[in-house]
Amino acid sequence: MQYEIGGGAFPVVTCNLSDGESMITESGAMAWMTPNMEMSTSGGGIGKMFSKAFSGEALFQNIWTARGDGMIAFGSCFPGRIVPIEIGPGKSWILQKRSFLAAESGVELSIHFNKKAKTGVFGGEGFIMQKLTGSGIAFAEIDGDLVEYELAAGQQMIVDTGNVAGFEETVSIDAQMVKGVKNIMFGGEGVFNTVLTGPGRIWLQTMPISNLAAAVASMTNNNN
Fold first, then answer.
1. How far is the C-alpha of 218 from the C-alpha of 189, rounded, in Å?
2. Virtual torsion, Cα 46, 50, 56, 60, nearest 10 deg
3. Which DSSP symbol is given to 8?
4. What was the pLDDT predicted at 124?
5. Which pLDDT tens digit goes with each residue over 177-189?
6. For the whole prediction, is pTM greater than 0.90?
7. Structural class in CATH, domain 2-223
8. Helix %, strand %, coil % of the chain (to 5)
9. Residue 116 burial (10 A CB sphere; 0-12, 13-18, 19+)
């Protein structure tokens, strides 16, 4: 599979496939394709469908297979970036649960549960995230722009709610309460921050879609 990412603030990834190669998506991400792309739909078994239903994820995945050399493009559903991730042995990634866009068929998408209850409730990304394992190239949607850090063992980064886009599986996630009653009540930064601890790479996004939606709603309300 060869790919090219374009489209500026409203990105699209165009994938050129050889005969028999496949891509998987979780929802209606297909933007355009050549006529020889064949679609099939899979739920991945009762156990996986149950976990997806519990997590609020789409129950089915679309599998696109080239019958002869073909091309298919997947578009982002919000302004930001599409970034490739190389998945392989020892190279698993955890993503916020709506970041996954598409992947080669050798990549396995599963549900990742944060083990610490307070992280699930207060950590900003919720109790359930997405985990990518297997082997191949995956594509993730990033809100706004992307900033990457490489954390050493034990090194930490404190992140505002919603700005965590993803991280390598070696990174641990926790929640930390903002210090000081006045800071909590009047600081405008919420009650909890997310704490990421290395070793490993972390991806932070500059404009969470929830923040953008809140800003648009505020402007709309002010104009009414």
1. 17
2. 0
3. T
4. 46
5. 765 444 444 444 5
6. no
7. alpha beta
8. 15, 50, 35
9. middle
